[in-house]
Automatic annotation (TrEMBL):
Pfam families: TauE
Protein topology in the membrane: Multi-pass membrane protein
PANTHER family, alphabetized: MEMBRANE TRANSPORTER PROTEIN HI_0806-RELATED
Domain of life: Bacteria
Keywords: Cell membrane, Membrane, Transmembrane, Transmembrane helix
The protein's name: Probable membrane transporter protein
Organism: Magnetofaba australis IT-1
Length: 265
């Protein structure tokens, strides 16, 4: 058990940097890592993916709150953009989490890998430094975009950055730093409602490991959060120091690598 918890904490240390740097909540790191840890611990394969996704969402609540605070102190969070995304994001997160609890774990893993890869390639093909936001959809359209972001993010156990960062940089031409910071704020709501839904949907599930409330393993989650709280401020600091184009390229490469690992490793 000690090695398992150390593995969870090590996952958190890495995920915290990624969360602060890219605004993704760390889910693209946490979900694959938890799948490996659960496989090692012999968790039932039929619930493994749901448990990894639900636990990832629970850890992202704390991780993103830390990231938002540090980004906000640097004036990078676009609260004016986040406000209109929120209603759709929250509704989408609930719907995505409920759907994920009823989808086959292997299919969910493959779909997650394919989705992450597509977004990664899209980011790499749109390299270039963006400026201030140049296009604003209507309030209804922005809320609808939020619904898609929240639904897909909760479905795959990520904090929203995998979709909201590309949406803000590619579609709305926000700077990478603004997109990362604003994505972290949106991710708090996605993760909170998503985690609550995963707990409810898995409350009576069979073969849950000790320390689990539905599809959320608090034992694993605390180990992960112990790591993310240490390194998230480091990621935020790097995000505000690195060149914008380099940051965007690194984000795309990260997603492509994670896609390959999920689909073929």
């Amino acid at each position: 058990m000690m090695l398992f918890l150390l593995g969870a904490a090590a996952t958190g240390l890495f995920a915290g940097v990624i969360a602060g740097l890219f605004g993704v909540g760390g889910g693209v790191i946490i979900v694959p890592a938890l799948l490996a840890l659960y496989t090692w611990r012999g968790v039932d394969a039929s619930i493994m993916m749901q448990l990894a996704v639900g636990t990832s969402l629970a850890t992202i609540v704390i991780t993103n709150l830390s990231a938002v605070w540090h980004h906000h102190k640097r004036g990078a969070v676009r609260w004016d953009l986040a406000t209109w995304f929120v209603p759709g994001v929250l509704l989408g997160a609930l719907g995505g989490a409920v759907a994920a609890a009823h989808i086959d774990g292997a299919a969910l893993k493959t779909a997650f890998g394919a989705f992450v890869g597509i977004i990664g390639v899209k980011m790499l093909l749109n390299i270039g430094e963006n400026g201030r936001v140049t296009w604003r959809p209507s309030a209804w359209a922005q809320s609808a975009l939020g619904g898609v972001i929240g639904g897909v993010s909760a479905l795959f156990g990520i904090g929203g950055g995998t979709m909201s960062v590309p949406t803000l940089t590619i579609l709305m031409r926000a700077s990478m730093r603004e997109a990362v910071a604003t994505s972290s704020a949106l991710g708090v709501g996605i993760a909170l409602l998503g985690a609550m839904a995963f707990m409810q949907q898995g409350w009576d599930a069979a073969a849950l490991p000790p320390g689990s409330w539905g599809y959320v393993s608090w034992l694993t989650g605390l180990g992960v959060v112990a790591g993310t709280l240490i390194t998230t401020p480091v990621g935020v600091k790097l995000a505000h120091k690195l060149d914008q184009t380099l940051l965007k390229r690194a984000f795309g490469v990260l997603l492509v690598i994670m896609s390959y690992k999920l689909m073929f490793a």
